[in-house]
Amino acid sequence: MKNKVFLARYTLIRMIVTTVIFILFIPASLALAKVIADDYSRFMLMQTVISLILLIICGSLLLVTMAQLGIKRKEVQAGRVFKEIFEQSSFGMGLMDQRGTILSCNIAFALMLGYISSDHLLHKKFDSFLVSEAQKREEKCNIFFEKLQSAWKNKLVTSEFSLISIDGNMLLAEVTIHRTLICKSALLMFTVYDLTERKRMEQLKDDFVGMVSHELRTPLSAIKGSIDLIIEGVAGTVSEEQKKVLETGRRNVNRLSRLINGILDLQKLRSEKIILDLQNEDMRNLIDEARTTVLQEVNSKQLNVRLDIEDDLNIIQIDRDLIMQVLINLLNNAIKFTNQGGTIGIIAKNTSKGVLVSVEDTGIGIKKEDLSRLFDSFVQVAPPLYRKTGSTGLGLTICKKIIENHRGSIWIESEYGKGSVFSFELPF
Amino acid sequence: MKKLILIIDDEIDILTLTAYRLKYEGYEVITASECESAFKLAKEKKPDLILLDIHLPGMTGFELCHQLKGDSELHHIPVLFFSASSVGGNPLIKVEECKAQGYIQKPFEIEFLIREITKHLGKNNEE
């Protein structure tokens, strides 16, 4: 506000001074021209030239003043816009110094902590709102100060903290801190996003999926148990014809069971709760184990297996069970979609980022238009004949999530009718 | 002498089917559908193995397992959980915490169930 008044006064004074100079210099130019010129025509010429020069000088001064005024006005407007964004943001935002003292904040941050005005938070310490179990509070504060120091070294830091409001409500917040320069002073800018509701909804979703899967699996167990008892002749003699019909029932119960397990796996992988059990591993060992697992299927279809594994593969940090799940899934797909006597291959080599593994086949291949949706949930692009084993359409989606959780990437190259190559790269 | 298995599950259909199948495999089977009577039955009959569901009325299977493992007469009896549950993260961690011997996910392959039981009881009718 003070700046605005100063600016208006400053501009007004400049304009008055310019006008006065212009008015005063008309008689002055007359006098000057009279002194310089000795006859009337030269006097008129000189007067015109001097008047024009003065006019140009004063006009330029006026134009510069007007332009500066425009720039200042734009700056004021931009400042007003940013102030409005700051004030109206639903994210908590503010500035603090290196020690975590709040110097400025918006109303959203104040409301999160139960204050009706942002002024009430000025000069309070951010860490005074951190909350944790009594014995862990100090530990939490230390983590917070570590984050502050990282931010002070120009690193953008984001972390989750539990905060407590003045009325005792707990909120889980994602706090982002980064260093910024305001009026030539280095400060820490923070944004706070209230995760409480999102976490509550995630918990509700987890509980719901858990409950539904339990309620589905229980009757499924009874159906499966009953069918097994009949097929295996435990409950009396069954004809071959009856067995055949019951096998269809059993196959589909197993399929439904796999589907439920797949949905649960996917949900776990998508949630942030999954903790990878990372260990140093040599992919060669995993490939050997995966090959042994699928050996029976390979032999029953009389497939050739081509191995091309680089010596001294890089050791990478992976969750062994999850990567094994990916390998077996890709190998099973390769086996399923390759006709009798075909070839499947496993290639593993070092890359600058880590290790690249490919599973290739000489199978039916995938049409170009289907490639982009292959990793989507519940997508099955194979012809019906090849789906007889009862796929769930979740296998590749799960593989993709597992690889992404390892910060890796997975992709496919395929030629319809000739075969496919599924590759994934895992970083160190 | 036949090995005695106590099955505890509040789902009567599962209870009946599993008991039926295990009897067919040559085991002697007793059943309970809630924790209090299950504990009493265990104290009375001292089974060779307990198959225990997780979601039970009154208390959870984990709580019952703690009680069984804390009892001087019953602590040695192998407990295998079998459940359709997926609530509460990885059940294997809780299974380990309450010193149970294993976890079987429902619906299960009967061969898998028999294999797990055999691991702890040896081949049926073996002394």
Task: Explain the layout of strands and helices.
The complex is a heterodimer of chains A (428) and B (127).
Chain A lengths: L1 H35 L3 H49 L3 E5 L5 E4 L1 H6 L24 H16 L4 E8 L5 E13 L2 E10 L1 H36 L8 H31 L7 E4 L1 H11 L1 H6 L3 E6 L6 E4 H17 L6 E8 L3 E8 L6 H4 L23 H11 L3 E7 L3 E9 L1
Parallel strand pairs in A: 7-9
Antiparallel strand pairs in A: 1-2, 1-5, 3-4, 4-5, 6-8, 9-10, 10-12, 11-12
Helix pairs in contact in A: 1-2, 5-6, 6-11, 7-9, 9-11
Chain B lengths: L3 E5 L3 H13 L3 E5 L2 H11 L3 E4 L8 H9 L9 E5 L7 H7 L4 E4 L4 H12 L6
Parallel strand pairs in B: 1-2, 1-3, 3-4, 4-5
* Rg measurement of chain B, Å: 13 Å
Determine the N-to-C terminus distance of chain B: 7 Å
Number of helices of chain B: 5
- What's the helical proportion of residues of chain B? 40-55%
Q: Could you say which overall geometry of chain A the principal axes of the C-alpha atoms support?
A: elongated
Q: What is the number of E strands of chain A?
A: 12
The pLDDT mean of chain A sits at 85
Strand content of chain B: 15-25%
Largest contact between protein chains? A-B, 28 and 20 residues
What characteristic shape of chain B results from the CA principal axes?
globular
In short:
The complex is a heterodimer of chains A (428) and B (127). Chain A has 428 residues and is α+β, with helices and mostly antiparallel strands.
